[in-house]
Amino acid sequence: MMSVKNLLESMHKFYSSLWDNIERIKSVLLTLLILLSIFLTWNLWTYTPQNNVLEEQEPFKSAIEEGEKKKLSDIIQPKQIILHENGKHYWFYGYGQEKLYNSIQSNLLTSGDIKNKKIENPEYGITISYPTPIPVEVLKETFNFSGESARAKLNGDKAVEKIICFKENNGWKLQFIIGDRKSNSETDQIVNSNQVIEYQLSNPDDIDNTVVELEEDEDIEKTEVVQRSFQRKDYYWPKENMTLDNYKVPANTIDIELFVKALLPPDVVSKTSNETETTLFLRQRSQIKYFKNREEFTYINNQYSQEEVIRQNAIIQSLDFINSHAGWTYDFYLEHYYDAEEDPTTNNKQKDLTYRLLMHGFPVMEGLPGSRSIGSMDLEYTYNQVTKYNRYLDFPEEDYKHVPVGETKIQDDEAVLNALKRLEETYSNLKVTDVTIGYKANKEQDVDRYDIVPTWFYKSGSSWVELDIDTNETPTNKGG
After folding, report:
1. Residues with Cβ within 8 Å of residue 137, at least 6 apart in sequence
2. Domain regions of the chain by residue span
């Protein structure tokens, strides 16, 4: 056993050795401290906090088998394209409109200059009108630019409702007509639309060839239109009566369980009311209310954070949201976009969007209130996070399965204007924000098929209403 004396001698040698090398030890420790400081400083500089939105913390579990994903250019579509030629105006609808718009979009936009004057009704040109003012930051993503300098000319927090293309010196130029959005929950409009950004189109021959092809092809649907005005808004309506096909359209229905799996966390609790034919799927602070009698559901998300997260525009967010579960079951386009921050009557952060189904070149409107439909999808965003999602589960099959069953006469501009004036006389407070040809869709009894019939509609508030041309009839609400 080691004696006390030997232990003391060992301790003395250890401390003596330690003291003799104290400077070397201090240098090593100092070097380690410096390296640790550098490492911690680098981590602080490069650290990115996880500011994930609560709604997105749990990934979607499944996709809609019958659906697909879309691009932004698929859902941002014009409601009407008019060709101006020698004082006359022509409307190519259906495939013709799609082909002409694609020709313009595929062109490279070069230069980019601010102009003081817009070209109205050019001698030879094209007017593109959108169903709702499209934010500049969104619309620019659907066009091609020759470079970043040209792209940067189109910027800001304003919106575009109209694009004008015109021919000049054997070339084509394009003007974005930009203004301030004046928005509320029911109407969209542009005010102060006096800013014009003009570009040169890089391939004018492609547009010339497309126009010639559309004019010479007898199978392309087109009609001459005239400009009319009602309640201080301009429209292009058919100069003469036209006929459009009616269709019987077979439809399928998406199983609600697919949306439950896609939108809600696992272990959902369901409650069914046989009296109202509704089922409520609940989990945490989210729910889906399913209406069996009309195959419709409303998704409510109460998990959002009240701290607004800086993110992309709600239109792009909604595209990503629907893409996340492959929710596009047919051709839809953005019909309505409302941003509460542009509404002087409210202080909330809400944004509303409506996507409407497009069939054979025309929008499809809902049938009678409370009935089954295939017409639209509605989304609501709060603090830049989806809080509400409403849609129908029925969707039409492919176009080639649509069976034409007779024709419907579509009245000309004079009949439409007279009908609107009669409405205005009957309802003095009536505010009409849009007028269009559309399909009314009514489901056949006990058959998975819809009757699709074209007619005139006007928009009042947030609803589309069938315009009754017959003076003996009174207007009835046909749409959502």
Report:
1. 155, 157, 313
2. 72-227
